[in-house]
Amino acid sequence: MTRGRFPEGLGPAVARVRSADGTPVGSGFLVAPGTVATCAHVVAQALCSDERDTSAPTRPVTVEFPLQRGGVAYEASVSAWRPVAPDGTGDIALLRLPESATTPVPLAGACDVWDHRFRILAFPATAEHGAWIGGRLLGAVGQGWISMEADGTAHHISPGCSGAPVWDEELGAVVGMTVATDRGRTAATSYLIPAAALLDLQPGLRRCPYRGLDAFREEDAALFFGREKETARLLDAVDRHLVVPVAGPSGSGKTSRVRAGVLPHLRAQGHTVSEIRPLPGTPAALTLARALAPLLEPDQGVADQERGALKLAALLDAGGGRAAAGLGQRLLNHCGPRGHVFFLNQLEEIVVAEPATARALLALVVALASVPAEDKRLRVLATLRSACLDDLVEPATAAVLSDCAQVVAPLGRTGLLRAVEGPASRVPGLTLDPGLAERIVDDAEDEPGHLPMVEFALTELWSHEQGIRLTHAGYEALGGVAGALSAHAEKRVGEIIAEYGEKPVRSLFTQLARPHETDGFTRKPVRLSPLPPEVRSAAEALATRTRFVRITHGPDGEPIVDLAHEELVRSWPRLRRWLEDSRDFRMWQERLLQSLTHWQDTGEETGALLRGTMLATSLERAADPAHRDGITRTEHDYIRTSHRHEQRGLRRWRFAAAMLVVLALLAGGLAGEAWRRGSVLEARGQAIASRALAEEASLVAEVSPVSSVRLALAAWRNARGKEARQALLDAFLMGASVVHGYRGQGAEQIHGFDMTPDGSVVVTTSQGPDGAGHAQVWSGVFEGRARPWPVRGIPPGIPRGAELSDDGRLLAIASEDGSMGVWDVRRRTRLWLRSSPALGALGRVETSALDFSADGRRLLRLAVNRTRGTGQGRQPTALVQIWDARSGRTVPASQKGVPPGPEAAGAALVRDGREVVYLRRDFDDPSAVQEPVAELRRVADGAVRERFPEAEWIAGRGTDVIADGGYGRHVVQAVKEPADSSKRRLLAVESAGPDVTGRYLVELIGSLSVTDLDTGLRYSVPCSPRLGELVFTRAKSAVAVLPGGNGTPLVLLALGSDLLVLETTADRESPLPDVSPYNWSSDDTYVRSADGTYRAQFGETDVGQRLVVARRGREHAADPVLLSEFDGPPAGAGFTRDNRHLVLWNGNLLSARSADRPGAADTAKFSESISKVVPVYGSSVVVLTDNQLVRYDVASKRRRVLADNPCSGDGIACRDIAVRPGHREVAVADARGRVRLWNAETGDKREDTGILLADGGEFRSKSMAFDPHGKTVATSIDKTSIVRWEVESGRRVGRTVRGGATLSALLLAADGTLVTEDEEQLALWRPEDTREPFLRFPFDTTSDDLRLTPQRLGPRHLIVEQADTRMRVPLDPDSWHQTLCRRWDGAYTRAEKRLLERAGGTSEPPCP
Fold first, then answer.
1. Other C-beta atoms within 10 Å of 473: how many?
2. Residues 277-302 as b or e (16 or more Cβ within 10 Å = b)
3. What is the model's pTM?
4. Do residues 36 and 152 share a domain?
5. Which of 484, 214, 421, 386 is nearest to 1017 (CA)?
6. What is the pLDDT of residues 1008-1041, one digit of tens each?
7. Which residues form the WD repeats (predicted)?
8. CA dist., res. 730 & res. 708, Å (int)
9. Domain count, the chain
10. 1274-1291, pLDDT tens digit by residue?
11. Where does a domain end: 987, 1018, 1046?
């Protein structure tokens, strides 16, 4: 146990009870706000009444707090009473004060306090003004009282001590109340009544110690656990810096750390504090003025303070920083003895919405806080997301912000465990089932934003368990950490929807989140008053009856409504679906709001009104019934004003145009025909050029992605034909996530690549056509202004390795001939060059590793000869070389322990370069090494300092070793730490190893993903199947990652001859553990539940078939299980509609496993081999065998035969079976191609539907697709044709789709849009397309992984959830064009201009 520090605030919470004549008769203490605990006999003695009377006294009791300033006294009433029993027990009284006196004492349970040291602060007769008495606690006696043994001090536990709080020095809290049972002057016997017994007398005093989705407050400091080190770090930063930005991702607890961790300490030191939450739409000067007004004029009323704030705002607007400094001088006369702290909370909300306003506010508070003072100071704390720092920096504040940002990471396992157990220890009588805290942490550790989810789950568990004991059973009933939030949201918000309707509730929630351009949402507070009445009513109901919406007051006193926490967006599927469906509308609305704000700021100038495309779009949105109510009255007025202004301009233009037309008609008759013919010829030429450019874009994609995207844009610029459209889609899939793209040195392929940890310097190496080695050093890559310069003096041949020192001052390059050189980056000069060492009898020398020490003073090269020995003396050889980095002087290095050539997988210097870590692993032949291992050795003598078994990679530039944890899991072990400490576990399937900075693990599983080795958080590059394919085949080792960019990392990719900077998004879920670690896992073995909560995959291992099932967010905790019921691989798998069971089948055997507990299997045998199983409703599935159609309930194990011989053919299988959505029906295509329908619930059959499926062929699983409502179905009528049918009538609808190869129907939308599979590609057909699809996608997937967003909700998107990747692809070419133009615009290169000239295309920029 850790010894608890005696709290400074305990003394003011201790009370003295006096009789009517003023005589002290006992003690007491604040056990809850406004409630004092004391002994019943103390109250009886004060009132001269009977302590055994069962009725509570009605007269007031005098209670004073002598250790508070001024010795405050109250007349208290008895609120709870337990008289002294005949055996002396009972003896409790709770007194209600007329007002809250001070903060109550922190409480803890007294379950196991034997031999703990205690201290009490009481008022015995020998010390009327208070005395400290110490001792130790003994064992429990009757009624749960605990014996107390006092030390032989000057004061004894006498009657005046009864009612005093007992402080346990081991637990650091009050564990109970003192009772001196002997009423003599020196009591021989004293006991402790546990704090739980005090609160049980009035159960409402026992408050929940968890905060749900709410941030911790200052008054919650006693419940704030797990962040002690971070709090000390922040306090130190406040002491040293003028401004301290506290940056971190959503859910990391930034606000709580400041409020409950930092601010109480600052107040205790003598600071006063103001919290400011800037709101979009409020000028910076007014925001600051409203915070200053109550500080400078504290005696004024609210109205006067608002008038004063307006005057201060005008002063700040006129005088800027000078005026702010003057106000800072005034504030020093009105603040605490140590100064004042401004806390800018959730600053990112205004940074994202109005970055200019945010910068102006920061400049003002910096000027305010910069005033000189001797004994006082002004400081600024600000919480925001990491990415927002970039948008805040400007010349005026850059110096202040430099090196002062404090990055807050999500709690690690130890801290999270303390955050669960610590608050529980503060509630007397509250216990947790053994292992529950660890289970909660295990479930939550891998969840993004896990802290609010844990707090919410614990808050719910408290309310369900009545705050007595938190149990495993109650936790399971909630659905665990992942399920508690969504389940509670569905229940509570569902009640509001039932009362107010879904429309206003949905409208409110969509207004409370701001969409990002690529993916994700951030919360956005809105003012309550402008909302429509029905939405306002729903907001008030949600705020009072749920924990998901808050209504607070802004700085101007107006009510604002806000999401309780952004975690709602991530963890509540319904809200996420609402937001995704409204994304396009909300993005438009945010742009409209920016224009509206600009118009208002300019004094409503006509030049700031809407015009052109934006006005046309706004008029459509305003008239759309689906979104009309979501537009505020102010926004409607702005659109109408813009429209009226445009109409007036059009009328003037039409008059002038009419006059010009009259004149033009007189002269234009002869020229018209010539112009028409010229236009036709020009259009044909542009179409030909467009096709040529589209083809060229495809050809150069692997060599130069930058040129490929720009040529696709040029093709679209020349003519919008099908080839250009397809090229534009391919470019979008490859380049939509690119923030910046840079062309390399001509057409030279980049072979080597490195980057400093801060991204300030990048080096690339290549080889020219003449065989000469080239290298370029780049700066400004992540800022969009890359400036490369060539490195001179590189030896001939391809550079085989390049390494930058961490500070970017030195560059080392190892060449193909084995030579080694070092350059001074700043001076752009070579410092030294060394020739190749002699290694082995045959083969060339390779560089296996290059590494600078952390201080840049030493350089290591691991040189190897990978020629394998043949028994004739040729042995694999390796040599470690270490130099003084600047002089090139050789540093003596022992060769002891250096792995032989083929096994020398890596090496890195540790810290100052006096130790080295070697990686021994043979990637070409893993069996050649008995045990992959990393060893930490001393450079001087080769002595082993530490061994790391099962090592895979060296990471963190020598600070970490990554070991294989099995099934795609990895263990990150800090070098130079004890073997059992500093281990971090993470899941990264199909990993290609660390990026060049060593901080992130790169994954290539369908797309490009990176996992932060420090936090375990995973990020992916969205919309990148084409890019992922190129990375996998050409650039596995050329990836660097830089923290930043919208709160998520940026990825630098060397691809072909180009450099690409890509943005990432935080993943909501991790990949599944690798069920076949040594085999390729196919997407065909991967299934997902209908609601996306569960995923599963099976595969072959060396011990048979294994299966892994994981709940979303708990992938790390999922372990593969053996499929022992099957002899071979399952023929198929799927989840039931209730998402509770996974069903697998093979032969005539069906196996059902619980989604939460997949280790056990319930099997069922059928008479014939199973062709397919489809889920229909609940836990029921329909099983199609060779001779029967059976409904089977996997939960009850009941079955019902729906039909015998449903395929109507002797020994011939059915062609397909599919579920008809919304009707509990299955459609079966028999052996003759006739489609019949069976009601799976009643068994009713529709024999003659009139719907046909292709003749001939075997059973196929992709030949029939229903629309989401089950009204139409698409089937193959031959191998290359698909027909749409109306299900009820059996008649054909729409046009027949005819492809050039075998077509399979995958997805059908309600409007007839069709997605097919053709030669491992997806194709999208609009209702009007017949011979050629509108789009082709360069990937394939299953129908379960596809979704089309409804057209009525805005521009259509194709949603692809394939294995562990998710893409959202807009289907509008103009959208691709706009996205690419925002990031890829620029002048053509000479090579691109030659291509344009050769194709005959226009050389005008592709993005007008």
1. 9
2. bbbbbbbbbbbbbbbbbbbbeeeeee
3. 0.57
4. yes
5. 386
6. 888 988 888 888 887 555 666 666 555 445 789 9
7. 804-833
8. 9
9. 4
10. 998 887 889 999 999 999
11. 987
